[in-house]
Amino acid sequence: MVFVVTLVVVPFVILGESYVLPLLESRQQQAGALTLIAIALLACDSVAPVPATLVIMYLAAKAGWVAGIVGGTIGMTLGVLAAAWIGRGAVGRLAPKFFPDAELARLRTSLERRLVLTLACLRSVPVLAETSIIVAAATGVPVRRIFSATLLPNFIVAAIYSLAADDSATTALVTFLATMVVSYAIWRFFGSERAPAADSSGR
To answer: What is the rounded distance in angstroms from the CA atom of residue 65 to the CA atom of residue 164?
Structure first.
């Protein structure tokens, strides 16, 4: 897990995020080009320092909330597929060298038990959004399950940020924090509800 988090964080440390806003601003008067740039940035989120909140809200503010929702959903979904590919193709090949098969199987079973809840609630959390996808794919969770588990959450996150976009840093911050708080509350509530059920069924 530490290796995967490091893999996601290192680009932020080395490159920073300063390139994102100028890149978006260069096409702010061209809705189509701006949407394509936003999609490309979000698709690279797992390997490049991309502030998804900023990208989606900027796109919505300049090209309209429909563009924000559509572009945000497509970009985040492509980002999920890219992260899953990295998890399956790179991290998944390295994992057996550091973890026994039994441990990987246990982790995969644990993830699959609450896959939708976990991945959905982490879609709005920086670093963990990408890390959770990479880890799930690396342990052998099918990419199609990861895709289906994150498609609706991606749409919801994109819709929230797009509808809240107004070129205000305060609004962006409040929306970002509120989204994370709500995601955490949902995860805690439904996670705690399922735990006793699992215990009772095993008796």
So the answer is: 9
One-letter-per-residue 3-state SS of 32-74: HHHHHHHHHHHHCCCCCCCCHHHHHHHHHHHHCHHHHHHHHHH
Please write the tens of the pLDDT for every residue from 89-144: 876 666 655 566 666 667 677 677 778 888 888 888 888 888 888 888 888 888 99
**CA angle (194 as vertex; 99, 151 as ends), nearest 5:** 75
Angstrom distance (rounded) from CA 7 to CA 61: 31
- What residues contact 28, with CB distance under 8 A and at least 6 apart? 34, 62
CA separation for the pair 185, 149 (Å, rounded)? 19
Amino acid in the structure at residue 162: S
130's tokens: 């990408």
Instruction: Give the whole-angstrom CA distance, residue 203 versus residue 194.
Output: 15
CA distances from 120 to 89, 123, 184, 191 (A): 23, 5, 10, 12
Q: Is the pTM of this model over 0.90?
A: no
Q: Token pair of 15, please?
A: 């490159």
